[in-house]
Specification:
The chain is α+β, with helices and mostly antiparallel strands. It contains 19 helices and 11 strands. The protein folds into 4 domains: 198 residues, no CATH class; 157 residues, no CATH class; 90 residues, no CATH class; 47 residues, no CATH class. It has a 5-stranded antiparallel sheet with strand order 2-8-9-7-6. Strands 1-3 form a two-stranded antiparallel ribbon. The structure holds adenosine monophosphate and magnesium ion.
Length: 524
């Protein structure tokens, strides 16, 4: 059946880059290729649970269009005129080189031009590929709901991200051991159709560099620049363009981390195969949202010991990953200093931009005046008083900032400590507040204007882990209403939406140690 994807097919990646000559869909090492052909498996009883109207609109497609797409969005049918494929890449996992990884459970089902933009469509969880390394290539409902909702929520928060078009239940069961503790269970299978201008990762370059395959490394880099960084110069493929490319990836990555820090997002698995060269958030696994402020927090139980990917370490890890990308590109640049200079600037730029971002969250726009100690103290106090990151900044966006009693109410409203514990912190907060209100008065801004601006920086609603878990619990029982409620809520995370105030609340006590809420693993 013809559908909007088939009608708009325009293949770049698969046409311009080398394809694996072996067409057998079995796990193996793949060399000399950027991708391998792989067909999705047929689900037994597929059902579309949700579609992103927002993304459809951006693609200038009507909701009716999607009704003809169950086949292709569930993997039951191929998009006519397109041969599905899985991409080859490598990566460092938790700091160690892991060799070939690749799309073990993602299959590209279309490259299409829609509303003036070329998009790649990818089914996550549609069966094994040559990169599955013996695993099943499937995904379960819980992780698919999490990826689906969060991709679209991040976009509405203004955070660069891959998108999600649809959430499909396959009707098949998938066995998973959630906490890897010898308790496998059968869970419902699902597929998310992810969408992005490109799914190329740092690891896409690393795999060729590791294999000393400079020819394909260059092909992939030239392709990436031609299609995604064409402003760097259409034709000139030389050292200078490559360095400019690396500099831009570095800047985009820095921007991305600033956004994550601003909204309190912890990716959870910042391996180099999960880093997009477009600077998008990619591969939603055991991610989480800060509730009580804690730079040491990570939702990923697989990383509980070292906490490599903790909230406060995301910028350091981004830099570490950029060093790996720089190493991978080195054979095409052959000069250490300019690469090093770009990497060295990252740290300084990040600390300046981070301070600016935090000052903006506080409604302070004359960044130069803001003392570093003032920001450090805030972080220290937020941690000690176990303050909910989202609620604190949103409440602050509603306050005059001149009256300590009003401020203390904000602290009370956002802290997870009880009143007796909290009262011990009154002195430190008083000191901090005195500096804050002085800074605010120096700004000389109309309070109403400042509040409006602050609310554009500080979201009221984020996809707290327990919220996603409630939607998952319902969906596992066949009720999908909450998926839509959260989807709709998170389309406008900066709006008051007073009738939705129940989602503007601290994490409930029951969620503090519940699997799926505070504890997540890579099993999905
Ligand atoms: P992730 O942590 O989700 O980024 O996955 C790391 C690597 O494992 C990627 O190459 C995935 O494609 C692969 N992978 C994860 N889960 C599965 C699965 N169920 N079947 C096959 N490959 C998988
Ligand atoms: Mg991944």
């Amino acid at each position: 059946m013809s559908n909007f994807l088939a009608k708009n097919i325009n293949i770049h990646f698969a046409k311009e880059l080398p394809r694996d000559v072996n067409t057998k869909n079995i796990s193996r090492q793949v060399s000399d290729a950027c991708y391998s052909l792989a067909d999705p498996i047929k689900p037994s009883n597929p059902e579309i649970l949700h579609v992103s109207d927002l993304l459809l609109k951006e693609m200038d497609q009507s909701k009716d269009e999607i009704k003809t797409c169950l086949g292709v969005l569930s993997g039951a049918e191929n998009v006519s005129g397109f041969e599905p494929y899985a991409m080859c890449y490598g990566g460092h996992q938790f700091g160690n080189w892991a060799g070939q990884l690749g799309d073990g459970r993602a299959i590209n089902i279309a490259e299409a031009d829609l509303n003036g933009k070329n998009w790649k469509f990818q089914l996550k969880g549609a069966g094994p590929t040559p990169y599955s390394r013996g695993s099943d290539g499937l995904a379960v409902l819980r992780s698919s709901i999490r990826e689906y909702l969060c991709s679209e929520a991040m976009h509405s928060l203004g955070v660069p991200t891959t998108r999600a078009l649809s959430l499909v239940k396959t009707g098949d069961l998938v066995t998973r051991d959630i906490l890897y503790n010898g308790n496998p269970k059968k869970e419902q299978g699902a597929i998310v159709c992810r969408v992005s201008p490109s799914f190329i990762r740092f690891g896409s370059f690393q795999i060729f560099a590791a294999r000393k395959d400079n020819e394909n490394l260059k092909k992939l880099l030239d392709y990436t620049i031609k299609h995604h960084f064409s402003h760097l110069g259409e034709e000139a493929r030389n050292k200078e363009t490559y360095l400019n490319f690396f500099e831009e990836v570095t800047n985009r990555t820095l921007e991305l981390i600033l956004h994550w820090q601003r909204v309190g997002f912890v990716h959870g698995v910042m391996n180099t195969d999960n880093m997009s060269v477009l600077g998008l958030t990619i591969d939603y696994g055991p991610y989480g949202w800060l509730e009580d402020y804690n730079p040491y927090w990570t939702p990923n139980t697989t990383d509980a010991e070292n906490k490599r990917y903790r909230f406060g370490n995301q910028a350091n890890i981004a830099l570490w990953n950029l060093v790996q990308l720089g190493n991978a590109l080195f054979p095409l640049i052959n000069e250490v200093e300019p690469l090093q200079k770009i990497l060295e600037d990252f740290r300084d730029t990040f600390s300046i931009e981070y301070k600016k971002m935090m000052a903006k969250k506080l409604g302070l726009y004359q960044f130069g005046n803001v003392n570093q100690d003032f920001i450090d103290d805030l972080e220290d106090h937020l941690t000690r008083s176990e303050i909910d990151y989202t609620i604190f900044f949103r409440e602050l966006s509603n306050s005059k900032g001149t009256d300590f009693e009003e401020f203390w109410n904000t602290i009370k409203k956002s802290s997870y400590l009880n009143e007796q514990e909290l009262v011990l912190h009154i002195e430190m907060w008083t000191k901090w507040f005195n500096v804050y209100s002085k800074y605010l008065s120096d700004e000389n801004l109309d309070a109403g204007d400042r509040m409006t601006k602050m609310k554009e920086t500080n979201p009221k609603y984020v996809l707290r882990n327990y919220m996603a878990q409630l939607a998952i619990d319902d969906a596992e029982k066949g009720n999908y209403g909450l998926i839509d409620e959260l989807y709709q809520l998170l389309l406008k995370p900066y709006d008051e939406q007073q009738d939705m105030d129940k989602w503007y609340a601290k994490r409930p006590e029951w969620a503090k140690h519940k699997v799926g809420c505070s504890m997540l693993s890579c099993s999905s």
